[in-house]
Design goal:
11 strands; globular; Nucleotidyltransferase, domain 5; six-stranded mixed beta sheet; alpha/beta; 2 domains; 13 helices
Length: 304
């Protein structure tokens, strides 16, 4: 069964084509467009016309490609950026008119569940960490209550817009310190109930997968080399120090760093470094498999 899933996030629009057969999911193709749907959302809680147009263009390209090869079902989901705004219905209506597809703006609970399913976590001593553009999700399994999560407003785009004055220049030390203080304060106030038995982490999302690509100096992004890659806390700090010495143009030339992510990677790395420190995590296992994989699995199982 050939199924397509599209995820419209704060920073990027992603697609996954998968062949689901007898409970197993074989990846056929993945793709991504940087659309910055959440641009300015932290300030005014509204999607701009320009951002919606960028997102819609990417979605239409993905849908056209999927339908051309005969997918049997397509699911389109929206996450943090669409939950945070007051005019998401405009994009929902535009997509319905253009494609006949429904854009499902999922709750934080459902996003956490799909991420956990997609990551294929085994064992209840793992924390699944997803650093997105608008928010960061902390997901874990509890024997008594099932899948739990906390979604905190400390995403890479949000922290960049909130604390970095000029994205073209080398970030100032005080700006990075403001990000650190913001992340620490938010975690202290809103993240109190992660079980003590959790001491391992799986990392999802563009910031973490990009750091794995940078650390390996990949000329071309290779999912096979990202999946399962381990980043140690000390190495994350080293990468942060390196990125923090570069201006935007210099960052765009870093091997493994997609140019469209160059303006938010420093904030995203700062977020990860602080989280690792606060939770005393020595390393994190990078995963390519996230809510897109979870969405396809759920759609396939419900279609049988």
């Amino acid at each position: 069964m050939l199924i397509g899933a599209i995820d419209i996030g704060t920073n990027s629009c992603r697609m996954l084509l998968g062949n689901y057969y007898r409970g197993k999911l074989e990846e056929v193709k993945k793709d991504l467009r940087i659309v910055r749907l959440g641009e300015g959302v932290d300030r005014n809680r509204l999607l701009s016309e320009e951002a919606m147009d960028r997102a819609l263009k990417a979605i239409l390209e993905f849908v056209e490609e999927m339908r051309a090869i005969g997918v049997e079902a397509i699911t389109v989901i929206g996450t943090s950026a669409l939950r945070d705004v007051n005019n998401a219905s405009l994009l929902v209506e535009k997509l319905r008119e253009e494609t006949g597809l429904e854009l499902n703006i999922i709750s934080g609970d459902e996003e956490a569940r799909l991420n956990y399913i997609g990551a294929g976590v085994e064992g209840d001593d793992y924390l699944v960490l997803d650093i997105g553009g608008g928010s960061t999700e902390f997901i874990w399994q509890d024997k008594g209550t099932g899948i739990n999560y906390r979604s905190l407003d400390i995403g890479a785009v949000r922290m960049t817009e909130r604390h970095i004055g000029d994205i073209e220049k080398v970030p100032r030390a005080e700006e990075l310190l403001l990000i650190e203080k913001d992340v620490r304060k938010t975690m202290e106030e809103e993240l109190e109930d992660i079980p003590e038995n959790i001491h391992r982490a799986i990392g999802l999302g563009g910031t973490i997968t990009t750091l794995a690509a940078i650390d390996q100096q990949l000329e071309e992004y290779d999912p096979a080399r990202i999946q399962g890659y381990q980043l140690h806390r000390e190495r994350i700090e080293e990468l942060l120090q390196r990125l923090a010495r570069l201006d935007l143009e210099e960052r765009r030339k870093v091997k493994g760093l997609e140019p469209g992510r160059a303006d938010i990677i420093t904030a995203g790395t700062r977020i990860l470094a602080v989280i690792m420190d606060v939770l005393a995590l020595e390393s994190i296992i990078v995963s390519e498999q996230d809510l897109l994989y979870g969405a396809i699995r759920v759609l396939a199982e419900n279609s049988v």
